[in-house]
Amino acid sequence: MVDVLEPQTAAHDDHGHDEHHGPSGIMNWLTSTDHKVIGLNYTVTSIIMLVIGGAFAMLIRAQLTTPNGSVVTLAQYNELFTMHGSVMIYLFAGPFAFGGLANYMVPIQIGAPDMAFPRLNALSYWLYLTGSITMLLGFAVAGGAANFGWVGYAPLSDALNAPGAGADLWIGALLLTGFSAIFTGVNLVATIFYLRAPGMTMFRMPIFTWNMLVTGILILLAFPVLTAGLVMLYADRHFGTHIYDANHGGVPILWQNIFWFWGHPEVYILALPFFGMVTEIIPVFSRKPLFGYKGMVFATIAIAALSTGVWAHHMFTTGTVLLPFFSFMTYLISIPTGIKFFNWIGSMWGGQIRFTAAMLFAIGFLITFLIGGITGIILASPPLDFFTHDTYFVVAHFHSVVMALVIGAMAGLYYWFPKITGRFLNERIGKAQFWFLFLGSTIFTMPGYLLGLKGMPRRMAVYTLHPEWQHLNTLSSVGAWMIGFSTILFVINAVKTTRSPKTAGPNPWDAHTLEWFTTSPPPHHNFYALPNIRSERPTWDYYHPDAPALTHDDHDPSHMPNAAKGATK
Amino acid sequence: MLEGVNDPVDNPGSGLVRSRTSRTRRNLGLAALVLTPLLLSSCTVPGFGAASGVTDASHKTYKLWQGFMITGLIVGGLTLFLIVYAALRYRRKSDAIPRQTQYVTWIEILYTVIPTIIVGVLFYVTIVVENPEVARVAHPPAKINVVAFQWGWRFSYPGYPNISTVGQTTQNPVMVMPVGETDAVTLTSLDVIHGFYVKEFNYSEYAQPGVTNRFDVHVDTVGSYQSQCTQLCGLYHSLMYFKVVAIPAADYHACLTSASDGPTFVACAEKALATAGSQMTANVRPTQGALSHHG
Questions:
Q1: Of B79, B93, B195, the CB nearest to A352
Q2: CA geometry: angle at B71 spanning B53 and B55, to 5°?
Q3: A564 touches chain B (CB under 8 A)
Q4: Are residues B209 and B234 in the same domain?
Q5: Residue B212: domain span
Q6: Among A102, A381, A397, B263, which has the minimal tally of Cβ within 10 Å of its Cβ?
Q7: Is residue A272 predicted with pLDDT exceeding 80?
Q8: List of chain A residues whose C-beta atoms are within 8 Å of the C-beta of residue B133
Q9: Residues B290 and B146 in one domain
């Protein structure tokens, strides 16, 4: 182990160093196997997908501001919401988290020089990019893009009901991005298990890394099932099989079981990385260790384990599932999720909270996710699900959750941007963006809950018989446009930084984890030196040797250690 | 800038800690003050955007909804309060390093055990409402077969082979149901999956190809309930309407026996609805009116 502990300073800041390792510019982008370059490619690509998916959402909300909207046709509307959901879930949320920020940060957080399989990592990105383009090409073919919802329920997605090439492109895209996700999952798990720096035991890993380990395992559990389901769907469409075809002895409900066996773990594949980001951010800006670190780790594992046994809560109204089992399993998930909430609150409690943009986004995540979580518990009750299934109540519920993830994504971006680029995002624009995004999300989702209770079904291009739904729909659209505006603010902010000086330094936030020990941006292979790793906060320990986390039940304030318990010479 | 790197460590045993505790107590007391009346006023609980509906099951679902909403508002409100309180109360006041507390075992046990108990109660009340809702009567006095297709519905009445109603999209086909009797509904689809949903029933179920589902409905209020398909089923999904007409059971059976085909049956039912409806304005609704608030 390196014993010195010179944080990265000008002495090492040899910018020429990087260039020796490979081509620069576009060739670097095309050929690199460096996890930082790939992570950045993923991040930028997925943010472009966020903007595209968001543009679809703006059109959807424009259509719904009047009962007989004429912004798009009925057929176009079906394509729009299908592609909105597909782009956001398959092409933005997952890839942004596990391909983008995790790819960039996990190796650095555990003191590794790169991912375990750098070329597989590059393959992941190129499969992802190819898959994304494949899906969007649906708009360019006769018959238009896929139009059967992002869940692609059989038999609406069969050759008879969805004859166009758009559906095949959708299936192809999911296969490509699915393999991309699987390879990333392999890479994350292998990297975290095998490439940790000396001293980085499992229970000293940053919580973001823990979340990505669990996410990686969930990817390996869930995605192959979806891939198999998609292959069968494609076979039904083109090779004459009748797996999901009720007219020839097939079972349409099988698709739903397969899809949701992937789909519910997928919810946590999407959510856990953002939980992880927020869990990094809140303690740093409260200047405290994460409250209940080990509890948080076990809560994360519990959520992942339970998430594999709840898939049929999406199928309560099919009349074909064992209601009490799936209901009970779903309720159980709220216990570890609740633990997380109290850990987040406990981390802020008694701290010195700095309201940076990143911290504001993190708190906005907590509040928005709280609403999504509580309404999720309501939906876990089969009678209440019968009541609200396929109405806007459900749409509002999962948009509370996914908007929380988008807010969490922004928290992660504002937090790690200085590390990745060496430059700060503008805090004033960031805070304006926060308020538009946070209030916009609330104004967007709240009317949806009420509309659902009034009986408005989801995926409706028009609501001719119910002009009384217009006011709430218009309000919801206003919220959506505020979210859209907040995204424009982010893009402006990100572009603006390219002209600002690199002032971040290695550790601008006085943070906890290893990525803040190296330069911003980190050098090729990430580190010139590593500090001693004695806790899950090696960088904090280095800068604050006299303020380690207090041990279990050390309540007596007079025990505040002033001795250099973990000091470095 | 390595902000805070050279900060001195503060003295954690300062007066700050004591004042925090007393303020916390005061605020918790305030929260209890706000929440208690909400709990005590359970006999006039608001609907939180939902309505009691017109079936035996819908009233129970509505009460379950109210219970969940109250629990949700208390738990969510308390959590929200703690988030906002912690964020504002502990905003940065100095560069001092706060106490580095990481574990407090009794709090961790508390926030694991209490949610577990809440979840147990929620599951119990769910089962209490769910079991009768999914139960089926052995010999239902009324039966109806519902078949969904792109993009319409066919309603037929077992035992009356001549009587069936078919309609597509804006033709808005009519489904007739008796009031005060259990009606056994079978549900299937000819093509893709459709969603049978009547808002006033607080209930929905999929109509699926290759699967015939059955559920029992006991409507208790005469009326006409505009409904539509809720599960995406293709191009005209937004226009796949149907209407439930609930008439007194005696009229229902009389119409079934007298009608020669679907259209005459629906006409008979709508006439019965008009008659019952005009009586209802006088006095037929009271039971249901009471139910919608106290049921």
A1: B93
A2: 15
A3: no
A4: yes
A5: 142-294
A6: B263
A7: yes
A8: 383, 386
A9: yes
